[in-house]
Design goal:
Strands 2-3-4-1-5 form a five-stranded parallel β-sheet, with helices on both faces. A two-stranded antiparallel ribbon has the order 6-7. The chain is built from 45 helices and seven strands. The chain is 61% helix and 4% strand.
């Protein structure tokens, strides 16, 4: 699956290089002299420089440029002018040049003559420039130089001369070289683009594009070991696909390198002295690189002196009390070059040196084990328990999986594998969970253990967009354990509920309800899982009772269980208790971050992003969605990858970037069968519909939004929950596309089918849609009802400030309606409030439209800036979190700041907003709605 956007180019062959491609495109555009005509491309081996050079060649040809290229070669580095000869070969012998210039070129490059040594350097350079001028007179030229670090010095001199004289000529030059070996003529004076490591998200997508993508634990290892190097990602994937290794058993957990990677990253290793290789192996096995540990592990060696040859070879850098490997693959190459006996000696030496660090000592003993070892297995299991208590679920899963391998007896081995799978689930790694849980059934006949393994396997299927398979497995487990193990059945149904919601199929909802009724566990009636299941079955049935149950849930106050927090937060989100959803899901993410597990659970993080989006915290929603996206691509959680990309696309569109948003929405669902995931189908239609609306194509906007409801005589929501919230936008598009009769049929059908106990948000959406489609004066009643419903919760009676974008849309629609009835004075407060909200959210299309409406009412063209606009993005984010009741410590954990820094920012925020206390933040940040 390929995703496009700010970081992911729409070119299916190149991922994560949008910024670099933009610079290269700018170079091609500079052929007319409008910008710098030379660009130097640098990066480490395998970073993808040659791929970018090839892309530039193809794009240049498409633009009508004639391409001349040369690639440096180590074998020809000693041949004078071999590089420039290769570059100019298509233009030689230069028959149209004046005789003196042609003679110089013949002497330099012809089959006979005195050779280049007898030539004056300046004469040669001027003749080459004349040759290029002659060719460029017929067609602009693109000069491409790859692997410039291996060009002969004579060629580099000529290229340097040319590069300084391209101004005014229709010629551009791209030179690519390794970062640490840029030719001297190009190392300072020209614009440079560094091709760095791929982001985690782009690296994950590149793995997905391989013929046999790595799965489970091996996927995480490839990502860690490759460190964003594209060639390493590809080569390690191929190595695994050929069956050359898997999860490494030594503490370094390295994967086998291909010969190509060894040549790139550790060619000098075999030439090093034996003592140097021994100390390097200790450093590689230790992982931390601390010199003090190496000194304890090798007391008889002069460690620092032994490392000197490796430092001179550029393999490591010693400083700050540590040994830093140039790249993780150098560390891998050191481990791979050693025999098992050598690695075992290193691990045992490190285990002795780490007697005071039981966790690391256990891993080194495990790496040195020659077979099953109960004592080492117990030590690893104890280490896993300590990691789990800290919230380090991925670490715990890895330790338990290795402990299971070392456990002699089958039953304990099965239980440790089950615990490993459970920890991997909490860490958000579905493919790893599926891999581990699938091995449990072979080791035990215990029905409970087998059922729990099936539960985890079902979760893994659901997170990887295989909802039908997941529900077949999960419903079977839940029904089989409904009476014998009701706690397990409820947990299984809670897991199944996520797939039921994503699927949206009526049959799945009815099965969830049927099996839920079979579970005989009165004590679990108000459990977090049960409340989540109930909300998924029907969020519109007895909503008031469901919201009260959320408020009274035992875990609602001080829950520190990730499962409970996630279930309660998700239930609050689906019930439109959005403020609670943001608060509870924020606590779940904070729990992960405080434990050092930030970035470990894509599903929880993405759920928070959705809640933040609906609450009007768009910047925080975008940042959180980006975080969820890279986590999901790393873990292989396809449902989050697609969903986060759709949220990013929607935010693009709502901020006026409709072309980028539409592209991203299309890329998000490539190769996804949306018929099996109706929630994603509806969200995709919404992004596409709003993109068309912003572009002014109201007919297409209506068709896209209309597709969120069926074409039956009595239209029904395609997705029983997600479709309903787009009715207002459907009505707005219908008015402009002249499809009001069809839209009215949809709204009427929904009105008849929905229960009276609807959420204030849904009631407001329906009132807005009805108002827009009304022909008479009763529209005003519905507009006013929409604004009342959108701020008052009928269950709690409290005023809520959620869904500000939806409220602002209604105010804009109502203001337009009033102005068209010559009630401009009444319209202005609504339009002013709408404009303030749109400007705060940076919803530019609607801000522009509202500004025009205000001008039409006779109001000044510009409004006074809100005090909120004086806040920096970080200050606004801190103020938002503080307004929700988070402490400075909570805010610091979420934003990776210190509590002192948060306090400093709040000290600056208060005077900007004209307030004195924390309790005033909420009002200062909110819009004062006209009554």
């Amino acid at each position: 699956m390929t995703h496009a956007g700010a970081e992911y180019t729409a070119d299916p062959g190149i991922l994560g290089r949008a910024a670099e491609l933009s610079r290269l495109d700018g170079l091609l555009g500079a052929v007319d002299g409008t910008g710098p005509q030379v660009l130097v491309l640098v990066g480490e081996p395998g970073a993808g420089k040659s791929t970018l050079v090839d892309w530039t060649a193809e794009r240049g040809r498409a633009r009508g440029l004639r391409t001349l290229r040369v690639r440096g070669s180590e074998e020809e580095a000693g041949l004078g002018l071999s590089g420039i000869h290769q570059l100019l070969h298509p233009l030689l012998p230069g028959d149209t040049l004046p005789a003196p210039r042609r003679e110089v070129l013949d002497r330099a490059f012809g089959p006979a003559g005195q050779g280049p040594a007898a030539l004056a350097q300046l004469s040669l350079c001027v003749s080459v420039l004349a040759l290029l001028d002659d060719a460029a007179a017929h067609r602009p030229l693109l000069l491409l130089v790859d692997d410039a670090q291996w060009l002969d010095l004579g060629s580099v001199d000529v290229l340097g001369f040319l590069a300084r004289r391209l101004e005014g000529r229709p010629v551009v030059l791209l030179l690519a070289a390794r970062e640490d070996a840029v030719p001297a003529r190009f190392d300072r004076d020209f614009p440079r683009v560094t091709v760095g490591p791929l982001s985690r998200a782009a690296a994950g997508l590149l793995l997905d594009a391989q013929p046999v993508p790595p799965r489970g634990r091996a996927r995480s290892q490839v990502l860690q070991q490759a460190a964003g190097n594209p060639l390493a990602l590809i080569e390690l994937s191929r190595s695994l696909a050929r069956g050359h290794g898997g999860t490494g058993r030594d503490g370094a957990a390295t994967l086998p390198l291909t010969a190509r990677l060894e040549n790139l990253f550790a060619a000098d290793l075999p030439e090093l002295p034996g003592t140097t290789r021994e100390v390097l192996l200790l450093a590689a096995a230790a992982g931390t690189g601390r010199l003090a540990e190496l000194l304890r592990a090798a007391p008889s060696s002069d460690v620092v002196e032994a490392l000197a040859p490796a430092e001179r070879a550029g393999l490591v850098r010693v400083g700050d009390g540590r040994v830093h490997f140039r790249h993780p693959l150098v560390r891998s190459a050191v481990c791979q070059a050693a025999s098992f006996a050598e690695r075992r000696r290193a691990h045992l030496a490190l285990a002795s040196a780490l007697a005071g660090e039981p966790d690391r000592r256990a891993w080194h003993l495990a790496a040195a084990a020659t077979g099953q070892d109960a004592e080492v297995a117990d030590a690893l299991a104890a280490s896993a328990e300590r990691a789990r208590a800290r919230g380090g679920y991925a670490t715990a899963a890895a330790a338990l999986e290795r402990a299971a391998e070392l456990t002699p007896e089958a039953e304990p081995r099965a239980r440790r594998l089950l615990a490993a799978a459970r920890a991997a689930m909490l860490a958000g790694h579905p493919q790893w969970v599926g891999e581990i849980s699938g091995r449990v059934g072979e080791l035990t006949e215990d029905p409970r253990v087998r059922a729990e393994a099936s539960l985890l396997g079902g979760w893994a299927l659901g997170v990887t967009l295989r909802d039908d398979e997941a529900l077949t497995l999960l419903f079977g487990v839940a029904e089989a354990t409904a009476r014998s193990a009701p706690d397990l059945a409820i947990g299984t149904l809670g897991t199944a509920a996520a797939s039921v919601y994503n699927s949206g199929a009526p049959y799945h909802r009815s099965e969830l309800e049927r099996i839920s009724a079979l579970v005989d566990d009165p004590g679990a009636a108000d459990s977090a899982a049960r409340l989540w299941v109930r909300a998924v079955i029907d969020p519109h049935r007895d909503r008031a009772g469901q919201v009260r149950a959320l408020e009274e849930a035992p875990a609602a106050g001080a829950a520190e269980s990730l499962n409970d927090l996630t279930a309660l937060g998700a239930a609050a989100w689906i019930l439109d208790d959005t403020e609670r959803a943001v608060r509870v899901l924020g606590r779940a993410v904070d729990l992960l971050r405080r434990a050092g597990s930030a970035g470990s659970n894509a599903t929880v993080t993405h759920a928070l992003a959705l809640a933040l989006f609906e609450s009007g915290s768009w910047k925080a929603a975008r940042d959180t969605a980006d975080e969820a996206f890279w986590m999901a691509t790393e873990a292989g959680a396809a449902n989050v990858t697609v969903s986060a990309c759709l949220l990013q696309a929607t935010l693009n569109v709502l901020r006026g970037e409709h072309v980028a948003g539409r592209t991203r929405a299309l890329e998000a669902v490539r190769d996804v069968d949306l018929r099996r995931s109706l929630s994603l189908q509806v969200r995709h239609r919404y992004a596409m519909g709003m993109a068309a609306f912003v572009a002014g194509d109201h007919a297409d906007a209506y068709e896209q939004l209309r597709a969120t409801f069926t074409r039956d005589v009595r239209p029904a929501p395609v997705h029983y929950h997600a479709s309903l919230y787009h009715l207002g936008d459907l009505a707005a598009a219908a008015v402009r596309a002249e499809r009001t009769d069809d839209a009215r049929a949809v709204v009427d059908a929904v009105e008849r089918a929905r229960a009276a106990d609807r959420s204030p948000r849904l009631a407001a959406v329906l009132h807005r849609a009805t108002a827009l489609l009304s022909d008479g004066e009763d529209a005003e009643e519905h507009f006013r009802a929409s604004l009342v419903d959108s701020v008052t919760d009928s269950v709690t009676g409290s005023v809520t400030d959620c869904w500000p974008f939806e409220q602002a849309l209604t105010r804009l629609d109502f203001g337009e309606w009033l102005r068209r009835r010559r009630r401009s004075a009444e319209a202005r407060p609504y339009l002013t409030a709408a404009l303030e909200c749109f400007e705060r959210l940076d919803a530019r299309p609607w801000a522009d439209r509202t500004t025009a409406e205000l001008r039409a009412t006779g109001a000044p063209a510009a409004t006074e800036p809100s005090p909120v606009s004086a806040l920096t993005p970080q200050q606004f984010q801190i103020a938002e979190l503080a307004a929700r009741g988070l402490t400075n410590r909570d805010i610091a954990a979420r934003l990776y700041l210190s509590p002192r820094t948060v306090g400093y920012h709040l000290h600056k925020i208060f005077p900007k907003l004209g307030i004195r206390t924390r309790a005033q933040l909420r009002d200062a940040l909110s819009q004062d709605p006209p009554r």
